[in-house]
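Researcher: Please predict.
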Amino acid sequence: MSERSDPPPVTVIGAGPAGLACAIVLARNGQRVIVHERRSRVGARFHGDFQGLESWSDGIDVLDELTSAGIQPSFEHHAISQVTAFDGWGGRHEVRSDKPLYYLVKRGPGTDTLDHALLEQAQASGVEIRLSSSIKNTSGPAVVATGPLLANVMAVGYLFETTMPDGQWACFSDRLAPGGYAYLLVQDGQGTVATCLFREFTHSDTFLARTIAFFTEHVGLDMRAARPFGGVGNYGPPCRGEHEGQLLVGEHAGFQDALAGFGMRYALRSGILAARSLLEGNNYDSLWRRSLLPDIRQSIGNRLLYAKTGDRGRRAMFRRMATGDARPMLAKLYRPSLLGRILYPLARRHGQIPQHDSDCCDNACTCLRCLCERHINSETTASRLKPIH
C-alpha cells in the first residue's frame, strides 16, 4: 500500500499583520505554513511610528478578539481612553471613554513593534519565514497579503524624542490635512507627529509645516532628534476576496477604514477569516462579506459626510462627543445603518472609487483592482500621488 503524502503547505505572500495573523492561526491548528516577504525585514514598510489599533467599532475589545483567535497581544501597547481633539478654529475638545478607544502600538522592524511581535509568534508556532523572497507562482493553497495596490491616502510627518508628557492630540482641519486630520502622539519620551491627507498630496510639505506650527502653538510640541517619515495607503469598496485561487487579505483586498484609516483591525480580522476558511472549508468570500463588508461600506459613507460637513460639522460632532462617553458614540457612527447604505453609492461617485489599476483582473469587477471605471485617467490619477519611501 502506498504511503499517504502530506498535504502541501499554505503559502502566505506578505508578512504584514494580515499575513502573519493568518499564518499564526493556521500553524497553531496544525497546518504547515511558509510566509514569503519580499523585503529583508518584517515591518520595513513602516518606520517605528506610533499608530492606533482601534477598539471602538465593535462591542468586543480588539485585544480580546485577537486572543479568542489564538493571537496573543504580546506586542507593546498602551490603552488610550482620552484624546484631545482640535477643530478647525483651534477649539479644544476632550474626548474620553471608560474603556480604551484604541491601543497605541508601534509599526516597523524594531523589536518593540507590532510587526516584530507577530513575527515572533509566527516563528514560535512553527511558521517558516522566508525574507527577501518574492514569489508569483504558487501551488496549493495561498494567501496574498502584500499591502495596498493603489494610493489615495498619504501620511507625512516626523518621529522624534521629547521631554513632553504622554498625550494624544488630533486636529481635524482642512488647513492642516485636506480631507483628513493631523495628529501628535507622545508616549514614554517618544513621539510621532504627522498630517494624514486624503487629497492635495503634492502640497504635503506645506501641510506638514502647518501641522508642526499648530501643535507647537497649542500643545507645546518639543521635537528632538527628529526623523522624517511617510507612507501611502488606499481605501475603497472591495468586491472579492479570492483571485485565481488565492485568498486576498488586508489592504491588498481593500480592507480599510475609509473614514480615518484605522485599518489594522480589518487586516488582522481578514487574516483570521482566511485561516478559518482554509481550516474549516468555509467560503472565504462569504466570511468577509458578512464580517467586514458592511462596516467598510459604512466607513465610505462616513467619508462623504466628513468631506461635506466641513469644519463646522466636525466641530459640532466633537462638542457632542466631549459631553459623555465617546466610545458608544463612535461605535454608532461606525455601525452599519440605513443612512450609510443610502450614502454609499453617492460616496463612491464623489470619491472616484474605484481608481485605475493596470493589473485589473476582471472588467466586470467593482473593487480596487478594477478598470471598469474607464473614465478615470490613470496618468492623471498617478500624477496626483507623491509616494513616500
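Model: Residues 65 and 71 are 9 Å apart (CA to CA).
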